[in-house]
Amino acid sequence: xxxxxxxxxxxxxxxxxxxxxxxxxxxxxxxxxxxxxxxxxxxxxxxxxxxxxxxxxxxxxxxxxxxxxxxxxxxxxxxxxxxxxxxxxxxxxxxxxxxxxxxxxxxxxxxxxxxxxxxxxxxxxxxxxxxxxxxxxxxxxxxxxxxxxxxxxxxxxxxxxxxxxxxxxxxxxxxxxxxxxxxxxxxxxxxxxxxxxxxxxxxxxxxxxxxxxxxxxxxxxxxxxxxxxxxxxxxxxxxxxxxxxxxxxxxxxxxxxxxxxxxxxxxxxxxxxxxxxxxxxxxxxxxxxxxxxxxxxxxxxxxxxxxxxxxxxxxxxxxxxxxxxxxxxxxxxxxxxxxxxxxxxxxxxxxxxxxxxxxxxxxxxxxxxxxxxxxxxxxxxxxxxxxxxxxxxxxxxxxxxxxxxxxxxxxxxxxxxxxxxxxxxxxxxxxxxxxxxxxxxxxxxxxxxxxxxxxxxxxxxxxxxxxxxxxxxxxxxxxxxxxxxxxxxxxxxxxxxxxxxxxxxxxxxxxxxxxxxxxxxxxxxxxxxxxxxxxxxxxxxxxxxxxxxxxxxxxxxxxxxxxxxxxxxxxxxxxxxxxxxxxxxxxxxxxxxxxxxxxxxxxxxxxxxxxxxxxxxxxxxxxxxxxxxxxxx
Length: 633
Hints:
It is built from 12 helices and 28 strands. It is α+β, with helices and mostly antiparallel strands. The chain has 3 domains: 17-177 and 332-358 and 384-463, 3-Layer(bba) Sandwich (FAD/NAD(P)-binding domain); 200-328, no CATH class; 479-632, Galactose-binding domain-like (Jelly Rolls). The strands form 8 sheets. Strands 1, 2, 3, 4, 5, 6 and 21 form a 7-stranded mixed β-sheet that branches. 51% of the residues are buried.
């Protein structure tokens, strides 16, 4: 038999492939995905580097945490994040009524792959950074599936690693753990600084089989009793978190019992966030693998407790999935040119430098996690309203071509308890990606974008369906802004001219949309009459998906119950858009089965028109047509 031998030359150094981009995003969680898509859509040649085989980070099929954000599970009206995140979520709702996380992975992966100007590198780890300490020169990466080595260069680098790894390797200033009260004069800060963080959690999933199912505890798993799990509720109930207190609400809870509370559902179907460890270890990053093994011992021990040690209503439940990747809440925080603090959040501060917003409570988990026996696992510092996040939170204070997104942005430990949730991280990612594209456009640093191009950045974000508190559409190229707007019908307070008032969502008690008074058999028509005939190549329409309700995928039975399959009932489903000149049709497009909030219609060729009509024929459930904004370019 002939023997085949492949000889590997001794000590041959692998020569990496050289790749050059305008923007490189390192990290493929939701904030990194939104940053990369935003950068590419705004014209920058972009790469996204993801060490895992799927995108989504804590929201992916590997970890399966649902996306939380400023709406606080619907307790803050009209506060849900829009932009790229909502686009992904609405696409998932349309395809994935049964909350299959593999399909959600597919939505993220396909959107990244289909985005022009964006190169995707999955299973690729960044292992080397060349930096002067004030500028990143290049990074080196290895793709395990292809055995390819890459040396990648860019004008702007975005750290979306979660632990601030890119910034750390590049020599950027960072913080880890808790500041003392004197650092930022925060009332909720520690008396003395320490290295404590929030811990890591592994999720699990179980299903009701309809018949008793046996569970045998592995010999390496821990054993827990009820005393061990005090304040860590694992029956079929809801826990209300309000004003630093944990309130137990049983299955017979009444709606008035839950008023004003941030609710978390607990049932034997889904894993618990409080299975948490590592925040009081010596180094939550360097000891991550040891923490993961300890979490496995805890997850299987808690499932043994639920199944075999008391009546928890889980006799018929079967454990069908345990995550192999912990969800990580906290590591390093990179120093920004601005640091968000507790005062910014409690006072709902806003400024002309804001590019994102938040609203989630300043939620700080007990560092010892599950081993903090007899202690409440989380302190929830609630506040009313929303706050703005300044652009400087996303720009490194020391490395001038580095930006950061996700939980590692410029924020104090206390403030980070609010900014760390994935909804807030995602819109911050879109803001940073958009800014990075502007830096490439003007051949300047991210900080210089903030100094010279802030208005363009904020207006671009609004055009791309983001929300910035108090900021309205002032785009001089939008021909709709001076149009005369009429409609075949409308409800009082929701007049047709609202679609050009500059705001793309309701705010507090202020309605910023046109709402028809029912839908007639022939449809309801919104007409925008321009001052004169204009060259038109694009029409943008923003519909209403209900920005108070949940739109995320989840393991939780309670959260899933809030997200109906398919498109939100408020969204317009079937409609026709017509461009006219002197009453004659010059272009028409019929749309059916719409499931998106933000629709961009690019005409096949530029036409001269003095009027645009949108005729709504049907919605996805409601009896009225609803449109927030129309733009014409």
